[in-house]
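Researcher: Next sequence.
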Amino acid sequence: MFIRTVRMAKIRTVAMLMLSVTLIAVLVALIPSYAATTVFASDGSKVYTGVKSNQDRIEFLRRFGWEVNAEPNETVNVTVPEEFDQIFNGYNELQRAQGLDLGRYRKKTVTRYTYTVTNYPDYEGTVLATLLVYRGKVIGGDICSAEATGFIHGFAKSS
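Model: Next structure:
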C-alpha cells in the first residue's frame, strides 16, 4: 500500500479559498431573481411583485389609474414560447418599454388574467386590461380595446 501526501503552501490555500468565494459571489449576482424585480411604491418607484390574489391584481391596475370589474373575464394558463415570432417580438417591445421583458420567461407557464376596464377616457367600446403573472409577479400585460382595429398600450395612461 502506498500513501502519498501533498503539502500546499498557505498562500495557495488562501488564494484558492478567496477565488472560490469570489466566483460564488459573481454567480449569485448573475442568476436572475424571479422574486424581485421592479405597482408603485410610496416613493413613486415601480414594483411588479406581490401580486398573488385577485385583490392584489385589481390594486396593481388601480395604481396605474385603471378601475376594473371585481372579477376577471378570463383566467388562463399560457406558455411563453421559446422562439418569438414577429408578432410576439412586437408585443415584447411593448413590455420592454414599460420595464418588463418576456424573454426571461421563455418556456415558462404563466397565468393570463383579463379584466374589463370601466374608466377608460374618451372611448365608448370595450377596453381590456391583461396581466401576465408568474409566481406572484407581473411579468407583462397591456391595456387594449376589444375591437380588432383598436389600440394597445402599456399599463400607464396615455396622455
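Model: The two ends are 83 Å apart (CA to CA). The longest strand covers residues 109-117.
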